[in-house]
Amino acid sequence: xHVPEEIRAEAAALIDHHALGLWxxxxxxxxxxxxxxxxxxxGQPLTxxxxxxxxxxxxxxxxxxxxxxxxxxxxxxxLDDAAVAESPDGRDAVDHVCLLLDALALAELTGx
Length: 112
What we know:
Elements: H1 4-19, H2 27-40, H3 48-58, H4 66-80, H5 82-85, H6 88-110
């Protein structure tokens, strides 16, 4: 999943599933989202290296949602290709992933 349109669509689907209560993130999902959210709060752009670092801490847990893990791996790959990442479709895809991370992290931080 390296095509921006696929990443955007998957992020949007996970946002919807989370908002509708159809998907209950595991602790590993929330920990990864919080780690990336805290990085985003610094104002720095998300990088493939940052995503891989957050995932490396969660990989052994094996309870991370496979769709989320694949989405984040795909996003890391997209971010590694600067030309694609800076395209309008690439930026839109990354924005959707960041919205998903925000939703998961804020739900964790507020206890909802």
